[in-house]
Specification:
CATH architecture of the largest domain: 3-Layer(aba) Sandwich
CATH superfamily of the largest domain: Cobalamin biosynthesis CobH/CbiC, precorrin-8X methylmutase
Number of helices: 19
CATH class of the largest domain: Alpha Beta
CATH topology of the largest domain: Rossmann fold
Strand content: 15-25%
Shape: elongated
Number of strands: 19
Oligomer: single chain
Length: 474
């Protein structure tokens, strides 16, 4: 005589979501074991003479033990789980007990429609690409582990379904999950959630990560966070089957903006890696400049030598946005080349270098100064209120300092990153004395054109800092 336990998923709670195979097993079983609230969902198929063994919440071990006991007596036993029995259900526990007790009872699992699948169908098509499921319940899993999984899912751009998101005693975890996702995703990342999926009290909502209110969610809710490609169309949440940037452009009217390019995705991952290795936390605008500097140089000494005036990056960004900063002047053409053309065009900023201007060569020859010095004199004459960025020549930075002291220049800001061994430190000491000018300085001998350019890019993209989302204009 075969000893048999069927472990079945009965779906999220509506009769039409119980599969025919599960109905057949329930109808032919001698004993039905389950949480007492699940029995009303399957009562039409339970035999009148069948024994129903029901228990309350958190009695899974007891239910499993009873299932084995009745199976050992020769009864055909059916253990019911909501959704799918293998997803946070009874199937793993029964297999564990069978293994530990060396039982000769046969276990057969019949799949059911999971709660996240039902919720997904009601939301539209949010799980069209790689998806993961995370329970926020820390009853059986330490929160530290759950948080690592949330970070991994957010950073890897998984569509993420959240089970057990919130209860009376577990009220803060969903808020923390939202916070973690906002560190890796944009605020307009689509989120959908369904309460009591498939039941009379069913409620559906599609929103964005920034607007998502965890207080609207309870333990009967499934939350699905889309990936960076997910979008809203006709009030439905849709995740495309692939990462096709050209197709995304074609859907621009339906979506808030074109999603991340591959290059941006790589840059985002790099920034998250750098942020995780910093020795301490910093104000957001200094941190944004620091991340750019380390990303460009792979040199964590930047943490010790990058100086920014308090609020300098944000102040300069505000000047860009209000139109008072229209020009960036660099000492050498390599700096101008490294400033992102997309950002300059998007913000209507002009980047100029006077080094190759024939007037600079004439002035340098006539006055016995370097061409970079001459270029700065020309720049100040035409753009005295520009953002000046130095990545090579300390003599050019010293020239600007002299012109400021004489009242000829009043820069919107200064990026001081000349590199070398002669007058480099001194030029940076000079510029630091101008207390009323926002400054970013790479102290000591280090610097370079790439650094100066990336610090310009940090200013132009400061509105992406809060979400740690670099690379918009790649």
């Amino acid at each position: 005589m075969e000893k048999k336990i069927y472990v079945v998923g009965i779906g999220p709670g509506s009769p039409e979501d119980v599969t025919p195979a599960v109905r057949q097993v329930i109808a032919t079983s001698d004993v039905i074991v389950g949480y007492h609230r699940y029995f009303p969902f399957v009562s039409p198929w339970i035999r009148p003479d069948a024994l129903c063994v029901d228990t309350g919440m958190k009695h899974e071990q007891e239910r499993a033990e009873q299932a084995f006991r009745y199976a050992d007596e020769g009864q055909t036993v059916c253990v019911i789980s909501s959704g799918d029995a293998g997803i946070y259900g009874m199937a793993p526990l029964l297999y564990e007990m069978k293994s530990e007790s060396h039982s000769d009872v046969t276990i057969e699992v019949l799949p059911g429609i999971s709660a996240f699948q039902k919720a997904a169908s009601l939301l539209g098509a949010p799980i069209g690409h790689d998806t993961c499921i995370i329970s926020l319940s820390d009853l059986m899993t330490p929160w530290e582990v759950i948080e690592r999984r949330l970070i991994a899912a957010a950073e890897a751009d998984f569509v993420t379904a959240l089970y057990n998101p919130r209860s009376n005693g577990r009220y803060w975890q969903l808020h923390r999950a939202k916070e973690l996702f906002l560190k890796a995703r944009r605020g307009d990342n689509v989120v959908g959630y369904v309460r009591q999926a498939g039941r009379d009290e069913q409620a559906i909502k599609v929103t964005t990560l920034a607007a998502f209110n965890p207080e609207e969610v309870d333990m009967f809710t499934i939350v699905i966070i889309g990936n960076s490609q997910s979008y809203i169309s006709d009030s439905k949440m849709i995740t495309p089957r692939g990462y096709n940037i050209e197709e995304a452009k074609g859907r621009k009217a339906e979506r808030s903006e074109v999603r991340d390019s591959v290059g941006q995705t790589i840059m985002m991952e790099s920034f998250r890696t750098i942020a995780g290795e910093l020795k301490r936390d910093y104000p957001s605008d200094h941190k944004w400049a620091l991340l750019h500097a380390i990303h460009t140089t792979a040199d964590f000494e930047m943490e010790d030598i990058l100086y920014t005036d308090p609020g300098a990056v944000e102040t300069l960004y505000r000047k860009v946005k209000d139109g008072s900063l229209k020009t960036i002047v660099s000492d050498v053409t390599m700096v101008t080349s490294g400033i992102r053309k997309g950002a300059l065009q998007r913000l209507a900023i002009e980047a100029k270098c006077y080094l190759a201007d024939p007037r600079a060569a004439e002035m340098a020859s006539a006055q016995g100064i370097t061409r970079t010095q001459a270029g700065i004199r020309l720049a100040v004459a035409e753009h005295p209120d520009a953002l000046f960025a130095f990545g090579n020549a300390p003599t050019a930075l010293m020239e600007l300092c002299d012109l400021i002291r004489k009242g000829y220049a009043h820069p919107a800001g200064i990026i001081a990153a000349p590199v070398g061994f002669v007058h480099v430190r001194e030029s940076k000491y000079m510029v630091k004395t101008f207390k009323d000018i926002p400054k970013i300085i790479v102290e000591g001998r280090k610097g370079g054109s790439g650094l100066a350019a990336t610090l310009c890019n940090a200013i132009l993209t400061f509105d992406d800092a809060a979400q740690l989302k670099p690379g918009r204009d790649l």
